[in-house]
Amino acid sequence: xxxxxxxxxxxxxxxxxxxxxxxxxxxxxxxxxxxxxxxxxxxxxxxxxxxxxxxxxxxxxxxxxxxxxxxxxxxxxxxxxxxxxxxxxxxxxxxxxxxxxxxxxxxxxxxxxxxxxxxxxxxxxxxxxxxxxxxxxxxxxxxxxxxxxxxxxxxxxxxxxxxxxxxxxxxxxxxxxxxxxxxxxxxxxxxxxxxxxxxxxxxxxxxxxxxxxxxxxxxxxxxxxxxxxxxxxxxxxxxxxxxxxxxxxxxxxxxxxxxxxxxxxxxxxxxxxxxxxxxxxxxxxxxxxxxxxxxxxxxxxxxxxx
Amino acid sequence: xxxxxxxxxxxxxxxxxxxxxxxxxxxxxxxxxxxxxxxxxxxxxxxxxxxxxxxxxxxxxxxxxxxxxxxxxxxxxxxxxxxxxxxxxxxxxxxxxxxxxxxxxxxxxxxxxxxxxxxxxxxxxxxxxxxxxxxxxxxxxxxxxxxxxxxxxxxxxxxxxxxxxxxxxxxxxxxxxxxxxxxxxxxxxxxxxxxxxxxxxxxxxxxxxxxxxxxxxxxxxxxxxxxxxxxxxxxxxxxxxxxxxxxxxxxxxxxxxxxxxxxxxxxxxxxxxxxxxxxxxxxxxxxxxxxxxxxxxxxxxxxxxxxxxxxxxxxxxx
Lengths: 306, 318
Known about the structure:
- Chain A is of the alpha/beta class.
- Chain A is built from 14 helices and 13 strands.
- Chain B has helices at residues 2-22, 30-36, 44-76, 88-102, 111-130, 136-160, 165-173, 181-187, 193-199, 201-207, 211-216, 221-243, 249-261, 265-289, 298-317.
- Chain B: It is found in: Cell membrane.
- Chain B: This is Iron complex transport system permease protein.
């Protein structure tokens, strides 16, 4: 057994030294260098087969019309926005976002992998053995960080100009939406599960989108977390003007709370300012296309209210 | 009995080793596996970089956890005993969850070291509370109490920081996902404990006769207990640090083995390593192939296989 292992280990060493030589001997025809979460990432070709391990990266690729060959979609295509699904066509699922199948990724023979620093740092070395890996923040990223990561992806895939144009258009779209929305209204988004309500605070992605649309985040008290689990009483203390809820299940905890006397004291409940949206778009997707969808959702909310 | 079981166990182990290399999200025929060990082959990553180290790791971790279980059951002389009653895996779990919730941006590569330190502190804590001369029952009960304390701290941390629950839960179930050559090399030095454990086989037989008889036969019962438990702690701590606390393995494997080969430790200890390796290889194979490309944590599979078997065992012994 030990001999087998030592043979295997030595072949590993040999192979890694060989691959280092192979990388250094390639000529710099086109070279795109970007800063990712692990330092400088360079690529000297335009990647054709991209595998992405978080949903926000799908959004970034779709924004410039690039289709990934593999997505960690938790084996549920519905997790990708309908608009984006139409744009990118078919893909292969590479499993869950938390534990993507490295075998499936390897079988797709990608020439670029885009991974999330929060989820995939532990397998970064393995991913690099499969293909050059760009590692960026996605989970826990704010709206601004997401825009920054999107720009980096554009540059890394050789579509810098297109991506910059798309980001400019995005800023324009968001500004147009902001004009249609009442300025400075207090809007709070939260996702409701069967047994818990999580408010997305000012530090969350949704909180950033709400601000970008010229609206205001409700004061959720402690600001150390992007998501804050809230009881009904704590929620009453937050007491937002508008409450946007994404129900992961129905009936969710919010549906149960609706029968409680405390609920009727809420400003949003009294004025009928509670709206439900797709939690997937608002919480999981995180990207410029989903931010625009969120903007449209809010316009619908405020128009219904006129 | 033993002579009949051993060849079957070895064959099963060999079969599972090959099956683990062949099957997964993508099936690779046997012939291509051998080619997959060559650099530059299309299957090189899957076979040599991914499945091979993971398979070897599953074999070693399974064997080591089962061996630790047999040692603990040997000295505590209680069929319900397992490395879990030492609080080692819960100590590792607490350290790991603490690290993940309070330092979410810290480098994940330190996680095994943190978990290892946590489990060793838990073992020292138990030793400090019980000392060298207390009875095995006191040791077991203190260990269980400490484990419950660590478990409640883990729950508290996860309730306070719900955002990190996913990562923490995944780690706490025990998984072989993403473990490869690096983790294998971390485990290698701990293999040195195995010969020491096997060397204890003979005195462990005598301690089964009861402390008085063992002492009159020239066994230093306290020293033997301390040595066995220390080795069990080392084996468990190293495995848990790398794969997370894979449940039921240390409990079920020695039981199953005792059914197959009897209670003589000279045969029991090596056979239980075989059984442990077989169980974890099987668990990881099923976890990877049940719904590809979804990868379930192997710890879920060992619990699914282990818990009903254990219940059946309990009902039958009645």
